[in-house]
DNA sequence: ATTTTTTTGATTTACGTACATCAAAAACTC
DNA sequence: GAGTTTTTGATGTACGTAAATCAAAAAAAT
């Protein structure tokens, strides 16, 4: 059976009060006594019963998720997942809140991080922005002893506890390999639709894509990047023009969130029947396009898994417990039509409204 | 804040003892009193604090995993995952045990299920076998109020609480689609390596594969199934013979666990340079083959996720709590060389032994 | 109305831990 | 050795729930 604080007291020859002082780093214990207690803890392999401690303390873990605003479907899906998890999180003594900031606004993000620090939350998860003020804010959170997780978009050298997301270079490389395999020896250039090359994630995906394409047996041109700012109408226009201007176009890689415009352009021109199209993230649009044959493959990161992982990691850090690395590793999923899981809520009664 | 039993007592105008009797279905409560208490429970939205209850009861959840014996790498990996999870499961009041039975032995499996029922375990997870005595044993477990999860291999109409695994027809279809896409217009038949067609899972994968291949624009022969009994040497022989007998072979789909023999035959003959090879489950052999270019894609189900899911589902069922469907859905993963996650333990110091 | 049976309430103990209080013991200083 | 300071121990209360006991109250039966 598991050792308790009573066992420690007996093994070390001290009282419960002394054990409590050592376990919780309270003052009033001589070094020699502390050593005895710590020795007993180690010998017994004592692990705190966190559930019992939380009960005694009536502890609640307030966690905050800071997400970018806008109509990026993936981010909205991420927000939905947080809200869904939050609906029954009090059962696990967790209280989730969502704060949104303008996309790519480092200053606003830093401000919200500092706000969360002020409120003494138990942990922070944020989609990072490459900006010095964000770097500094993360540093302040860590100094205040608040666990910090970057979500989807990492920030190097930030001291964050954990990154939850996929490797974007590998993502691009995967897209390139698949594109090359699917196209085989069929000739013609490929186009790339990005949001903005100023975003590091997009740059990394392109880098990986180009590397993989250049390693393919068949040499193939990659056209200059189309920057659609993740805007549906702008993306639509760029793709439609490209389809018109490049009659021998062989494929399109959409590495950002402009998929609504892409899918619309493909459907409008009927071009997808002869193109290989690879996009990122399963959303309503890309799911429909995959099922309807407009898109050949979607590379996905599971927002639900990411949110659950963030919660688990922040909780583990707050409790000083180990993180199970294998469980928290986010896989880059490849979906074709045949392995696409059924839509969430597909089990619901047809008349049910939303989910 | 969360309502407690005290709030129920006050709301219903009864004592704590009565609330306890109602909550725990103990005798000695009139119907009219019970209705009052249940009304208060509903109005308050009371949800039991399972952690507090477990503390009061010193509860432990003994769970048993019944797995097939043998050197099937996937099953051994599954067993490793259970043992790994069991190493620190007491922290969560869970006690995992593994029982192995001869592969495909329905009688032995039924006997172990009954043994677990006798020991009054909190839940059972088993790789199912299609046999009437197994069906009956699962029925007995359910009658005894013991939650039952089928793992990897399901059993229809068994009354099990949950299936944790992938859809094998979809798996076969995915393999067929990928094979067709990767081969493009390149001519030549494809071969299928199975364990045994007597195993329903293998039959389903073949079914899906054939359906997808026949839907491809290019018509392509599928050779009669090679049944290697998941034996490395038998599989080696069958593949080597096939490679010698069919010089225009275009691809191989390995739907079972004979991959060690397959990979060895490919390496020995140098045939893989001109073949498209798709296999199932990431194991040491398939990982190396994928990285070395002998295999083009591996379709995988994550054993670690499956074990964690089984534990979560069994715990939730034992507690009478809801199962989060999205979290417990096992995805059919497609791995090519570029999105293959680094090997578990790859973060360890190079000198570290095993893991 | 009386007797018998059933229901209800009050109370205690328990789980493992957190945290506070204050007297007693030990250690330190002069 | 006396006085002062620090450390330690004993104890109580708390968290939310489980479970047992027995007296008192309520309901049912005669």
From TrEMBL, chains A, B:
One of its GO terms (molecular function) is transcription cis-regulatory region binding. Residues 3-57 form the HTH lacI-type domain. Pfam families: LacI, Peripla_BP_4. Gene3D superfamilies: 3.40.50.2300, lambda repressor-like DNA-binding domains (1.10.260.40). Keywords: DNA-binding, Transcription, Transcription regulation. This is LacI family DNA-binding transcriptional regulator. It comes from Shinella sumterensis.
